[in-house]
Amino acid sequence: AEAFIPRVTGAGKDVIVCSCGVFARHEDPQDLIGDGPGRVLVPAGAVGGLDVLAAAARAGTDRAALRHFTVKSPAALGVEEALDAPLEVFRGSARQAALEFPRTSNASVALALATLGLDRVEAIVVADPEVHRTRHVVEWKSPVGRYDMCFENAVDPDSGGRTSAITAWSVAGVLTSIRAGAGPGVVVVGAARPVDGVRVTP
Q1: Which CATH number covers residue 62?
Q2: Under DSSP, is residue 124 helix (H, G, I), strand (E, B) or coil?
Q3: Is the pLDDT of residue 27 over 90?
Q4: Residue 126: what pLDDT?
Q5: What are phi and psi of 88, to 5 degrees?
Q6: Which residues contact 58 (CB under 8 A, 6 or more apart)?
Q7: Is residue 62 part of a domain?
Q8: For 135, which of 10, 190, 196, 202 is 20 to 30 Å away at the CA?
Q9: Domain count of the chain?
């Protein structure tokens, strides 16, 4: 992602990036994208609710807080010791989570990019020997509302327990939204407008 994003956006093309944790290495996400006319599109991936959370952030962030729990198997988090109970292995900002757990914290970064930024979203990573799916718990509080969301995803068998199977379908949703000329979170009723170079079967 670090190598390809500036090349693609500099060429005036859009690129869908699931490994959005790469933005944690940059003070401002725009620093990686550069001045090219292309864009980076970040899918919701393993979590939902980015539409309502982004709307809540637009309503105001001064008194807003977002906390994201990620619960995965110990093996997916590189925990080698035998556990008989859940173990919190990280607590800090979404930026710190992405730097310490780059393969398992993309959801925290996506939430941060949609809302409060990488340094204000709190990320908690837990290794649980009893889980066979990845669990994400998202908690938002602000004057506009309170939202508590929980997502439990089957794991892609080829990912070593790190990637939720829903992620690929989330990317397909982004492509369908582009074809329809509207963003995710918007229900489009009617014929999709064609877009050059994009062929998607809903």
Answers
A1: 3.30.360.10
A2: strand
A3: yes
A4: 97
A5: -75, 120
A6: none
A7: yes
A8: 202
A9: 1
